[in-house]
Amino acid sequence: MSDRTPQEWREILADIRHPEEVRKAGSRRARRRAKAVHHQQMRRRSHEWVLEQRRRDPIRPTGAAIIVVVVLALGVGTRWVWPGLLGEKQPAAAAGQVAPAAPGREDGAAEVPAASAPPGAPSATPAALPSPSGLDNPDRVAEQFARGYLTRNPPQDQTHRTVVERVRPFLAPALAANLSEHTDPAWDKLVSQGGISTVRSVAVTPSGKDLPGDSPLRVWRQATTAVAVDGYTDYSETTVLQLELMTSGGKWHITRILGV
Predict the structure, then answer these.
(1) Phi and psi (nearest 5°) for 99?
(2) Backbone phi, then psi, for 171, in 5-degree steps?
(3) 63 vs 135, higher pLDDT
């Protein structure tokens, strides 16, 4: 770039004359408008010329030294005023009280924090997992399954598969896999209603004459479940499930479900 003084630039600007078409634009208003357009064009061309000169003129050693000093000063100031920006931690005394260290475990395994539901999300109480003795009665298995399967909290459960996992101990392996791969229409309805279902009561009775009768290895049970739904619109419904249960090793598991 040139080293002209401000006075020299003022003299150059004073010598500028408007083009002939600007001076003879017509009325005074037209001439003023033409001069404004001409000035805008001149400023744009001057700006482009300055950019071109800066691109051609390499930075001088003095300017480079000034830039380095400014960058270093900004780095020191940032570290002092905002230490977290550079990933540094404040001393324990400034940060407040120090959290106590968690007691170590004998097996050396890392302790995984328990997952928590989102703030404000209502929670439904999941069905308790059965004890080994809880599977020796088909009526009890049918009742606990219906209560656990129809108690649903979509914001907490996230997927239908979570509900199936909760009642898996009551199910035969093939039936558990089938339920995990297919979504229950009642689950989709509950999600669309923004609802959470709670089981009020479960009545287990032998199935009707349309299904086979009981045998030492297989029985059919009807689980009539009263469900209350709290959602966009509160409502109650009754769900009837026909359950086939089979025994193996003294434990009953559900092998088929009608009504899902």
Answers:
(1) -70, 140
(2) -105, 150
(3) 135
Distance CA 176, CA 165 (A): 8
CA–CA separation, 16 and 33 (whole Å): 18
Across the range 31-56, mean pLDDT stands at 73
Say whether pLDDT at 100 is over 60: no
Residue with token string 């439904």: 124
Q: Is 205 left (phi over 0), alpha (psi -120 to 50) or beta?
A: beta
What is the three-class DSSP state of 145? helix
| Residues 164, 43: Cα–Cα separation, whole Å | 73
- Share of the chain residues as helix, strand and coil, in percent rounded to the nearest 5: 45, 20, 35
Distance CA 49, CA 100 (A): 65
Chain centroid, CA 118 distance in Å: 11
- The DSSP element (H or E) to which 200 belongs, if any, is strand 196-206
Q: How confident is the model at residue 54 (pLDDT cuts 50, 70, 90)?
A: low
Contact 184, 159 (CB under 8 A): no
CA pair distance 258, 244, nearest whole angstrom: 8
**Which of 198-202, 208-212, 220-224 comes out lowest in average pLDDT?**
208-212
- Distance, in Å, from the CA atom of 103 to the CA atom of 249, rounded to the nearest integer, reads 42
**Backbone φ, ψ for residue 38 (5° rounding):** -65, -40
Count of residues for the chain?
A: 260
Q: Please give the order of strands across the beta sheet that includes 235-248.
A: 196-206, 218-230, 235-248, 251-258
Q: Read off the pTM.
A: 0.50
Distance CA 57, CA 237 (A): 82
